[in-house]
Amino acid sequence: MPPRPRMLAAAITAALALGAQAVPAAAADGPAGDSTTTTSRGVEIPAFYTPPSELPGADGTLIRHEPLPLALSLPGIDGPLPGRATRLMYKSTDANGEAVAVTGAYIEPAAKWRGDGPRPLVAVAPGTMGQGDQCAASMALEHPLQLNGQTVSVGYEDLSVYRLLLRGVAVVVTDYVGLGTTDRLHTYVNRVDGAHAVLDSVRAARAL
């Protein structure tokens, strides 16, 4: 393995160890006691992931966003390395033509883009790890390894995200419909839902 990928793999391994989080199983008969979390199928999920009752009309419209702390992040002269991350919630349309809120993450890299033209934006369509909201790719960027006593979620797509950031490429990653957001079950391998979520993540990232 060349030196740079080897170093990156080692850094990701360290992040898996340092970013491991034991996710407590919440009581089944009520919401989480902390107002910053909500209960989704027995697991406490940050309240950010609960969609509002009303959604905007246009696909890709930002509903809310907040800073996202990356598990692997170091201070740099021009900002955190490998970049500055933002957690997103945006509007999309599902396979039934219904409005839906989708979450994800955008990362602006610290590395300079050395190719031709402006800095490119790549939309990563992650492989899903299950139907639990704790399996969302945006959560994996913050906690690469999550345990709750019954399930394990590993952010195996983080490596591809970091490799793009090291090349100065901006990245947006979607959580897909119903993964992360607590109002519905994830529609696993639904190609229409997935395609809409990926395309609308780009629109949302460009609106930041």
Task: State the CATH topology.
Answer: Rossmann fold
- What overall geometry do the principal axes of the alpha carbons give? globular
CATH superfamily: Alpha/Beta hydrolase fold, catalytic domain
- How is the main sheet built? 5 strands, mixed
Strand content: 25-35%
What's the helix count?
A: 4
CATH architecture: 3-Layer(aba) Sandwich
Low-pLDDT regions: 3-34
Tally of strands: 10
**N-to-C SSE string, H for helix and E for strand:** HEEEEEEEHEEHEH
Helical/strand content category = alpha+beta
Mean of all residue-level pLDDT scores: 83
Query: Distance N terminus to C terminus?
Result: 37 Å
At the first level of CATH, what is the class?
Alpha Beta
Task: Give Rg in angstroms.
Answer: 17 Å
Describe this structure in words.
- The protein is α+β, with helices and mostly antiparallel strands.
- It has a single domain, classed as Alpha/Beta hydrolase fold, catalytic domain (Rossmann fold, 3-Layer(aba) Sandwich), CATH 3.40.50.1820.
- The protein is 23% helix and 25% strand.
- It contains four helices and ten strands.
- The strands form three sheets. Strands 4-5-6-10-7 form a five-stranded mixed sheet, with helices on both faces. Strands 1-8-9 form a three-stranded mixed sheet, with no helix packed on it. A two-stranded antiparallel ribbon has the order 2-3.
- A hairpin with a 4-residue loop joins strand 8 (145-147) and strand 9 (152-154).
- Helix 1 crosses helix 3 (158-166).
